[in-house]
Amino acid sequence: MPGIVPHRHCIMCGKAIEPDKIYCSKECEEEAERERKRQRNLMLIMMGAMFAMLFLLMFMTH
Model's pTM, two decimal places? Predict the structure, then answer.
């Protein structure tokens, strides 16, 4: 298409950015890192809860 400059979009806010970048700003990069850590922590909590329930169920049935 004529007139459209090659670009991509920031994965956090969706702003148009240069093709070789992932984030439009340091703030978006930091927000993505916080979100990644939050998701990792949530996954660890869920896994711990699952193992705790399995552990309890194992001992309640015997």
Answer: 0.72
